[in-house]
Design goal:
- By secondary structure, the protein is of the alpha+beta class.
- The chain is 41% helix and 18% strand.
- The protein is globular, with a radius of gyration of 13 Å.
Length: 98
């Protein structure tokens, strides 16, 4: 899904008060974690994922893999927190069409 800057800004504002729903553990990105992220996206559309690594390159690879495997859109990465969005069939979050 392609979002313009205004839509991304809107989703950042919606995501601000959210708490991370999925926390990656010591095993990193496993199939079970991807399945949990997929389930959370179906239920919430916009979620935060906590990635416990300080290495920028590793974090970038994990973010890319999450977005690819779940077919979601990266909204932002702040520190160790990733915000991703994937529209569900119910359209729970109304995005402005600006």
């Amino acid at each position: 899904m392609n979002l313009n800057k205004k839509q991304i800004q809107y989703l950042k504002g919606v995501a601000h008060p959210l708490k991370p729903i999925v926390l990656l553990g010591n095993n990193g990105l496993t199939e079970a974690v991807v399945a949990e992220i997929d389930y959370a996206l179906n239920h919430h559309e916009l979620i935060k994922v906590k990635i416990p690594t300080d290495d920028k390159e590793t974090k970038g690879l994990i973010v890319e893999a999450i977005c690819r495997e779940t077919k979601s859109t990266k909204i932002q990465v702040i520190g160790k927190t990733l915000v991703i969005y994937r529209q569900s069939e119910e359209h729970k979050i109304r995005i402005p069409k600006i």
